[in-house]
Specification:
Length: 444
């Protein structure tokens, strides 16, 4: 008996999407692996989820707000769609200081990824877009769903009507803008997910000038700005003229462990105008008011606590822990002789494996070490070959390793992060076989 079908046709844009979204596909393969090895203690260096507990100064504020909702005096229902004014003001003060961004320019949300989709609704289906290659998959996939792209080309592994801006070690992970065609929208992430590279002030100045020359709008993803430890800009608005051409989106997810709490923000400056002179922010406010009832009042209480002096210090400590994890990943792969990028200004490491398929390397490491990474090819055709490793998923790890080698690592790396060192050693023991050269692990 055939299944019943209705008269509603499938959205042809969704039908253009290739395979599954990257991270659910990685999760699916992890689940298959666990079915095969039910007793395996699978360790994740893959998706950028967090493991460190949210600092008490932040959770205490959320708990108080939650309790207040049980009282007549403290109860509140629907809030402002754009976010509570005091939260927006705190974001403006903490992250934008003297850059000219005001609380009225800020839209508080349930996360940067959600705002990317809302921004696509704002732009509509008749725009063209450019994206870093490799890049966070949500940029391309949301463009496909909105109908902004052509068909997927299997030979090039690209969608038609998208400008893929190749970013690799040869160009310092910044695209050759002279080779990029004119588009209305430019997605740009710095520090970058997945490569971990951060753009310099000179590079971002070129990007802003490029957008002005072409009449484009930059969607700038700064979700990892607090990880920056050098003089790289933490906001696109540090660049003169950027308020006229750029939207910035950010999140508390990787600063305060809000991946489950959900809280972020997007900046749409009043200086940003459409071709007819109409303010972009007014249309975005209409999108938000129609499709979103505002971020959770409990989450916003947590966000306000994040931006207190104590909260900012607590977030820096969490970030410091993840940066120590990242250093171990970088040092270990480098000691094996692999080319390693990122890790300085982001919790991500980009490791090159010449001549190997990213998915093949992913599968072999998972099979032999029970460790999950992310194949670089999942971030675009420019990601084929490397693996993406995240330092955010390391919490408590128990894994068998060579005792002597582990002892050396413990003595040289210290006990705080010894479990991560054990995992990296075990992964490295497998992947060094991928290289023809005989390399020796040197604990430094």
């Amino acid at each position: 008996m055939s299944a019943y079908t209705n008269n509603v046709s499938r959205n042809p844009n969704i039908a253009k999407l290739q395979a599954g979204y990257l991270f659910p596909e990685v999760a699916r393969r992890r689940a298959v692996h666990l079915d095969k090895y039910p007793d395996a203690q699978v360790i994740s260096l893959g998706i950028g989820d967090t493991t460190e507990p949210i600092p008490d100064v932040i959770t205490s504020a959320m708990a108080k707000r939650a309790h207040d909702l049980s009282t007549l005096e403290g109860y509140s229902g629907y809030g402002a769609e754009q976010g509570e004014k005091k939260v927006r003001a705190a974001i403006a003060a903490a992250f934008y200081g003297s850059l000219g961004i005001e609380e009225g320019d800020i839209f508080v949300s349930d996360g940067a990824k959600c705002d990317i989709a809302r921004l696509q609704m704002l732009f509509g289906s008749d725009v063209t877009m450019a994206v870093q290659d490799p890049s966070y998959p949500a940029y391309v996939d949301s463009s496909v769903i909105m109908g902004q792209t052509g068909q997927y080309q299997k030979d090039s592994e690209k969608y038609g009507k998208i400008e893929y801006m190749r970013c690799n070690p040869q160009n310092g992970f910044f695209p050759d803008l002279s080779a990029v065609g004119k588009t209305e929208i430019i997605f740009f992430c710095s520090p970058n997910n997945p490569t971990g590279a951060s753009a310099t002030r000179e590079q971002l100045t070129k990007l802003v000038q490029f957008a002005k020359e072409n009449g484009s709008i930059i969607v700038y993803d700064s979700a990892y700005a607090m990880y920056i430890s050098d003089d790289s800009p933490r906001s696109i608005y540090e660049i003169p003229g950027a308020k006229e051409v750029a939207i910035e989106t950010a999140s508390f997810s990787k600063y305060a462990g809000f991946t489950g709490v959900r809280l972020g923000w997007t900046v749409v400056p009043k200086e940003l105008l459409f071709s007819d002179g109409f303010p972009v922010a007014k249309d975005f406010n209409r999108i938000v008011s129609t499709c979103f009832n505002g971020a959770s009042n409990i989450s916003q209480a947590g966000g306000l606590a994040c931006l207190s002096p104590e909260g900012l210090q607590a977030m820096k400590q969490v970030i410091g822990f993840y940066k120590e994890n990242t250093n171990i990943i970088v040092d270990t792969f480098k000691s094996l002789g692999f080319n390693v990028y990122g890790g300085t200004n982001a919790p991500y490491v980009w490791v090159h494996f010449l001549g190997r398929s990213s998915w093949d390397v992913f599968s072999e490491i998972l099979e032999k070490t029970h460790v999950v990474t992310t194949p670089g090819s999942g971030f675009g055709p420019g990601g084929e070959g490397p693996l993406h490793c995240s330092s955010l998923r390391i919490k408590k790890i128990q894994i068998e390793t060579d005792a002597l080698s582990l002892q050396i690592m413990l003595e040289t790396m210290g006990n705080v992060h010894h479990e991560l060192a054990a995992v990296i050693y075990d992964v490295a023991s497998v992947i060094k076989k991928f290289d023809a050269a005989e390399l020796t692990l040197i604990a430094r």
